[in-house]
Write a structure and sequence with these properties.
The chain is mainly beta and about 290 residues long. It has three helices and 18 strands. It folds into two domains: about 1-65, no CATH class; about 80-260, Jelly Rolls, CATH 2.60.120.560. About 10% of the residues lie in helices and about 35% in strands.
Length: about 290
């Protein structure tokens, strides 16, 4: 069964999408939240109305009966590697700057890394701020490369589990990329951890040489490697889910090969049943008297 409604809009939706609207959801690409009330209105109109009166140059929305919507999928299938610098930058990242008068394009620039094919994200370092993903991640492996072209004490960092807070600095867990302390981990904003990590000094390579960072997140347990060396581990992170962010923190810094892979949650340990209380006691020998 088809019903056609005429709206002065450029959007075509199915009833499946109307059902999604009715529950309220976040439009990741546009960074907008559709309210539950608006979604219900869309659903009711779509399913109960006949033909609406046409306005000037209206577009038709075809509402078709479809099977129940499948559960929402994650950002990517498990084990699928996502290149966070590929595609449309503005669909993957948002920018926060502590100076609203500063043009964001003058702080963050995405350039090709000739003669290689990798794209390079260049940050001027001023003013302070960060770019953050539009998607959220919980269990994942994040790998990236970074370098400071000139500053021997260059400062930047990676924020994971970042909450949507437009401030310096938001609630998150920071993995330090400060040249002398790369690999250190500590909570930022209102975040908490069971412990902090002071990485060994000089894990970073010399100025203008690319460094590699690998971060593994499983249920609030964070493991960090810098240039193939284990920096350490932090546990009990709260929150344990959020966005990934890169800091602008006073130094020109470059990033490339920023890739993330979703992981399955850590399996829960199985609990073996306790043996019966008398299981280990020896069985007494039977005594037989004279017959």
């Amino acid at each position: 069964m088809n019903r056609s409604l005429k709206f002065p809009t450029t959007t075509r939706i199915s009833s499946t999408e109307a059902v999604r609207l009715s529950s309220g959801f976040v439009d990741i690409a546009a960074g907008k939240r559709v309210s539950r009330r608006l979604g219900l209105a869309c659903l009711c109109v779509a399913l109960t109305s006949g033909h609406a009166n046409a306005g000037t140059n209206p577009l038709t929305i075809d509402v078709q009966e479809t099977p129940a919507a499948a559960p929402a999928t994650s950002v990517a299938a498990k084990d699928e590697v996502i290149d966070l610098l590929a595609g449309d930058f503005n669909s993957t990242w948002q920018i926060f700057s502590s100076d609203v008068t500063k043009e964001p394009a003058s702080i963050w620039k995405l350039l090709p890394d000739a003669p290689e094919t990798d794209r390079v994200l260049v940050c001027s370092g001023n003013p302070k701020g960060f770019v953050f993903t539009t998607a959220e991640f919980t269990n994942f492996e994040l790998t990236l490369e970074w370098k400071y072209p000139e500053d021997p004490s260059g400062n930047s960092g990676i924020l994971i589990y970042t909450q949507n807070e437009p401030r310096i600095w938001p609630t998150a867990i920071q993995i330090q990329l400060h040249q002398p302390k790369a690999g250190s981990v500590f909570p930022s904003g209102d975040a908490k951890t069971d412990n902090t990590l002071d990485a060994a000094p000089d894990l970073a390579r010399p100025v203008n040489v690319w460094n590699e960072c690998r971060i593994t997140s499983r249920d609030g347990r964070i493991t960090v490697e810098i240039n193939g060396k284990r920096a350490g581990e932090v546990t009990g992170a709260k929150p344990a889910s959020g966005r990934i962010a890169l800091q602008s923190e006073g130094s020109v810094v470059q990033f490339r090969r920023v890739r993330v892979k979703n992981l399955l949650p850590e399996p829960k340990p199985s609990i073996s049943p306790e043996p019966a209380a008398d299981a280990d006691k020896p069985v007494p020998a039977l005594e037989c008297g004279p017959t």
